[in-house]
Design brief:
13 strands; 326 residues; 8 helices; five-stranded mixed β-sheet; four-stranded antiparallel β-sheet; alpha/beta; globular
């Protein structure tokens, strides 16, 4: 427990963990400001890292920032802190997303603290998984992770999984025919070594997929990539839908926190995962991703889970570029 503002070194470590979160095209659209006298850490969206063609309403941007906020909460709990979080503290400032008071005097959140070791191990895996169902106990822990953040997780039946795969293919076709969206994807994904600390490197793309049995986004679609092989993916993928009751900007922040809590829980349980928002990026087909027999109102992410090789880590920007200290 603490009532004293944490020192700058502690806050830098918290921000480094926060920045390990996933984001759309690994754009890392977050910025932090630490008010050292009061122990308040503020989270902002970085509009220069928005994807206006792929993500015109900034739903994905806010989900990424929400995921970073969850990592921050986990890292703080693991460090013995009990932060108090306020979402969207100033509605007139649309880029000011959350305020985290690090001087809370309550007990640290033990459930979050247990997820701390998973932050550095969690990487998207776009590699083939084993054709193996998830045990009921594992699924229940994933359900609970989503519920803890005010979201819902569901595993659709086989017929709906096939419908989702068709929607992914539909979205891929739409992107291929839309130069502005395709160009934005190409800007943030690198088929050749780039040396940048942002975007998705070619080694994290995974192999090209024989057939289309798993919802894995092909970031090299239409671009030559020498040496990249082909592979058969699992025929019966474990697909989960993460959703919320409402679909406003604050719900996207909550969905991002729920997404990262599910991914950290999955990593802790020995699972690997990849995520795709491709069919959710087109309003014309987003509604069809929802399972009609589910109570889930708004799908926010499609998650592929399973057992298999860990994915390649994507680069991260240095903390000095993310954090201002006042």
């Amino acid at each position: 427990m603490t009532a004293e503002p944490p020192d700058v070194n502690t806050v830098e470590a918290l921000v480094a963990d926060a920045a390990a979160a996933p984001s759309l095209h690994n754009a890392q659209p977050w910025a932090f400001r630490y008010l050292r006298d009061t122990g308040v850490l503020r989270l902002y969206a970085d509009p220069e890292r928005a994807l206006p063609r792929t993500d015109p309403v900034n739903r994905g941007l806010r989900m990424g920032c929400g995921a970073a906020l969850l990592n921050l909460r986990v890292a703080a709990a693991a460090a013995g802190l009990a932060p108090v979080v306020r979402l969207v503290p100033d509605p007139t400032h649309q880029d000011f997303l959350a305020e985290v008071d690090l001087c809370g005097t309550g007990p640290p959140d033990g459930a979050l603290a247990l997820l701390g070791p998973a932050i550095g191990r969690r990487h998207s895996s776009r590699l083939p998984f084993r054709d193996e169902a998830l045990p009921a106990a594992v699924r229940e822990r994933l359900y609970e992770a989503a519920r803890a953040e005010g979201a819902q997780l569901s595993f659709p039946g086989a017929w709906h999984v096939q419908a989702i795969l068709e929607l992914v293919r539909d979205a891929e076709g739409r992107e291929a025919l839309t130069p502005e969206v395709r160009g934005e994807t190409e800007r943030w994904t690198h088929t050749e070594p780039s040396g940048t600390a942002e975007g998705i490197p070619g080694e994290a793309f995974g192999p090209r997929q024989r057939g289309s049995s798993a919802p894995v986004r092909d970031f090299a679609a239409g671009r030559p990539m020498p040496g990249r092989g082909w592979a058969a993916f699992e025929k019966n993928p474990n697909i989960a839908l993460l959703g919320t009751a409402h679909d406003k900007p604050v719900d996207w922040l909550r969905a991002g926190q729920a997404l990262e809590r599910v991914l950290l829980r999955a990593t802790t349980d020995g699972l690997v995962a990849s995520i795709t928002s491709q069919p959710l990026e087109w309003p014309e087909i987003r509604w069809a991703v929802r399972d009609p027999v589910s109570a889930m109102a708004h799908v926010q992410m499609v998650i592929r889970l399973g057992y298999g090789p860990e994915g390649h880590a994507s680069p991260r920007r240095p903390v000095a570029d993310l954090l201002d200290v006042l």
